[in-house]
């Protein structure tokens, strides 16, 4: 049966506001010393279906090669930010943890006696080839945030939720509508605790933490069924 779109209530940011959020994500990644590259990802239709057909390491590599990401981090993990589509009532933010145990580009250059500042991106192609020759990590935990009105099913598929891991049915409900910055702060806190501490020490940047809870809107009442109240919900 075809799902009916349910409109109304707060939603993830649109076009202009979304671009502002993406720029802020880049600034925060720089503050946390996790920024490597901004791609401005363009995502093809059917991306999810394309990636689900591949093993995780190949998913990451496909996104890297095709430029299907917005930010590459210093450890080669990728951040994807799909903007809200009014037609679909959906937004997605994803974190693809790098599946390989790699050293950073600067460290790789220094190992060969080269100065990162003077060499710049001159050796980037050779470095990218090196990355995929490294040993695979034993464990990786990608995470994805979804806001999806069309797929909302009381007690089973929350309108706002997080996916943890790969090829499973985990959906952890959230009672607020996340922004891209919210997701980036979540990733930094959970995956890079030392960089989170560094971020927290920047006294002039305390306003960014409003994006964790204070500036977020709760999901619309129509997406909060009695069945949803029976599960653990991120608040």
How would you describe the overall organization of this protein?
The protein is built from eight helices and eight strands. It is an alpha+beta fold. Strands 1-2-3-4-5-6-7-8 form an eight-stranded mixed beta sheet, sandwiched between helices. A hairpin with a 4-residue loop joins strand 2 and strand 3. Helix 1 packs parallel to helix 7 and helix 7 crosses helix 8. The chain is globular, with a radius of gyration of 19 Å.
Question: Characteristics of this structure?
Answer:
235 residues; alpha+beta; 2 domains; 8-stranded mixed beta sheet; 8 helices; 16% strand; globular; disordered N terminus
Can you list the strand order of the major beta sheet?
1-2-3-4-5-6-7-8
- Low-pLDDT parts are 1-7
Order of helices and strands: HEHHEEEHHHEEEHHE
What is the subunit organization of this protein?
single chain
Structural class: alpha+beta
Q: Give the overall shape.
A: globular
Largest beta sheet, briefly? Answer: 8 strands, mixed
Write down the overall mean pLDDT: 88
Approximate helicity band: 25-40%
How many domains in all? 2
Number of helical segments with 4 or more residues? 8
Q: Mind telling me the C-alpha Rg? A: 19 Å
- The span between the termini is 32 Å
**Count of β-strands:** 8
Name the beta content range.
15-25%
């Amino acid at each position: 049966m075809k799902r009916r779109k349910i409109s109304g209530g707060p939603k993830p940011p649109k076009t202009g506001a979304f671009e502002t959020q993406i720029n802020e994500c880049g600034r925060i990644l720089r503050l946390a010393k996790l920024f490597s590259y901004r791609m401005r990802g363009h995502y093809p239709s059917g991306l999810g279906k394309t990636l689900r057909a591949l093993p995780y390491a190949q998913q990451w590599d496909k996104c890297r090669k095709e430029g299907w990401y917005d930010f590459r981090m210093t450890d080669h993990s990728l951040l994807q930010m799909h903007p809200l589509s009014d037609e679909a009532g959906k937004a997605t933010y994803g974190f693809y943890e790098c599946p390989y145990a790699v050293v950073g580009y600067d460290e790789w250059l220094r190992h060969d006696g080269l100065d990162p500042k003077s060499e710049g991106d001159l050796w980037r192609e050779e470095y990218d080839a090196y990355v995929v020759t490294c040993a695979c990590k034993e464990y990786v935990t990608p995470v994805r945030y979804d806001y999806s009105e069309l797929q909302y099913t009381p007690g089973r598929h929350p309108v706002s939720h997080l996916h943890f891991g790969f090829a499973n049915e985990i959906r952890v409900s959230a009672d607020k509508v996340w922004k891209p910055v919210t997701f980036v702060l979540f990733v930094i806190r959970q995956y890079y605790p030392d960089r989170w501490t560094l971020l927290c020490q920047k006294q002039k940047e305390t306003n960014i933490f409003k994006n964790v809870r204070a500036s977020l809107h709760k999901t619309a009442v129509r997406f909060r069924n009695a069945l949803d109240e029976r599960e653990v919900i991120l608040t």
